[in-house]
Amino acid sequence: MNNKNLLIKNASEVVTCKGFKTKKGNEMNDLHIIHDGAVVIEDGIIKAVGSTEKILENIKEENYEVIDASEKTLLPGFVDSHTHLVFGGYRAEEFSWRLRGDSYMEIMNRGGGIINSVRGTKEASKEELIQLGKKRLNSMLSFGVTTVEGKSGYGLDFETEIKQLEVMEQLDKVHPLDIVKTFLGAHAVPEEYKGKEDEFIDFIIEKVLPIIRKRNLAEFCDVFCEKNVFSIEQSRKLLLKAKEMGLKSKLHADEIVRLGGAELAAEIEAVSADHLLQASDEGIKAMAEKGVIATLLPGTAFSLKEEFARGRFMIDNGCAVALATDFNPGSCFTESIPLIISLATLYMKMTPEETITALTINGAAALDKADKIGSIDVGKKADIVIHEFPSYKFLPYHIGVSTVEMVIKNGIMVYDKNKVFESI
Ligand SMILES: N=CN[C@@H](CCC(=O)O)C(=O)O
Ligand SMILES: [Zn+2]
After folding, report:
1. What GO terms fall under cellular component here (predicted)?
2. Is the CB of 326 within 6 Å of ligand 1?
3. Do domains 6-76+375-422 and 78-367 have the same CATH topology?
């Protein structure tokens, strides 16, 4: 189907997630559902949303390609706002080591972990990374993701960091999924800068950031602010310089050790602070006050066998929470949104409604795009997913299984599960 004028009608529920900005605290429970709803799409943009009856009174059906969504649920496309999708090589061996008890940091400190993926990414050609990227994006799309954030950070040198960002730039052009690019040059300390972390931060600021800015290769700057990686001071310096150059801030914060990353995120008014497994009460409250989004990555905690971030406490204290996969080759090799939904609802005490908000409008807000995507609102991009059951309540209920039947991106059908089984 390639018709940009589309009418989806008779949906059991249109879960609009209505809104153009971040939802905080209790607001996260309000999904603004329309029962027996319809959506009108023209030229890739949502033109009207309402009850099927009202919508049909105002349009001529014959002018549209029509999808009958009876007994189905419409949701905004998911926004996976934290991933490391471009990398070469895999770390299946390290996963086995972790199963036998080695910790993530132990593996990292003996030259595995991120540095292992840096080797693989340096060795891979741009074309290889593009082909791998396409497969990964296809998989994400099948889970109903229509916008994804992707980070560099498996280069740690000028050429490879730029290569990763260029690969994402290219993927964004050739693949229906939209990619928001983040520069994560400070993801680990390269061998030649061990003990000279300040110099490495200066190298990034002086030599890499200006080119990224000039070529518009990233919208966000991120840093792994962690004990034995980059300190609070180094992270602050990098993010503030990047901000001066026009890059918005994100942080990998308080993941393994409570370092004060949440407090730093509030101080510099970052768009989001991510992970936050060890974030302090004060840090969380400061983030709520400053409107910093807490992007939680339960797949990572699960895969590392760590305690989950305190999503319930954060929401109860007025924070805006987003959820993302953290898809990467080490700490969380999954693009599964159903897994994230299961972990958030069953283990993080988030309600189904909060979970959906965290994966849609708040995911969009974590990418500073809540005005364009993340909800089914008139004027927004027509990124809409048709789920095969009559209520959003089936998403957590159908544990670990994708409920996605069709994905519409910019008003065009790009995934139809029924087609996969057409010949059966
Ligand atoms: N914690 C730091 N960075 C990634 C892991 C990257 C890796 O292990 O390759 C994360 O967000 O989980
Ligand atoms: Zn990450």
Report:
1. cytoplasm
2. yes
3. no
